[in-house]
Amino acid sequence: MRTRKRGRRWRHNPLRRRSDVVEAWTVLAVAVLLFVGAPLAGAVAGLWAHDTAHRVAAVQRADRHSVRAEVTGNPPTDLPAVEGTRPHTFDVAVRWTVPGRGTYTATAQVPAGTGHGDVVDVWFDSRGRSVAPPPDDAAVWQHTVGVGLGVAGGAIGVVLLTHSVTRRVSLRHRLAEWERDWARTEPEWTRRRA
Fold first, then answer.
1. Partners of 97 in the beta sheet?
2. How many helices (H) and strands (E) does the chain have?
3. Burial class (CB in 10 A: 0-12, 13-18, 19+), 128
């Protein structure tokens, strides 16, 4: 004969305590929050981050322009030790010609390893300052995914931490209930008078 154990926390049972019911509902809430709430929070945060990053990139693309310039200064020959993957840039004098408007010179950021006389793409903003290129679509999506995963992970952490605290409090209440019940039952079992 097989015994059905499914849903044992939800059935009426004389041994079921209030703390058992609270724990069962807590487990259900945690499951819903982990499998629905956290991914939903990550998706919403990712969409918000995508819209924001896309707007910032559009503003930067409208404000910045690229020119092909010749390096006229002497970039440093000794490259610093780098532990990251981000390439180093150096401020060096460059010169470029705009047809019908003349030749311009400025100090711009050029990649490491660029030599005197090399032609490079440099970016300037509307005020003529040397700036980094505007973010492309890949950078916008990297930002989107990073924010979405960060928010989802944070939500999961908060849910699991809250569940842990709730279980600890529930365990304390359960032990207190057992202690009270044992104080009533123990005299009957041991035939002592309370």
1. 103
2. 3, 5
3. exposed
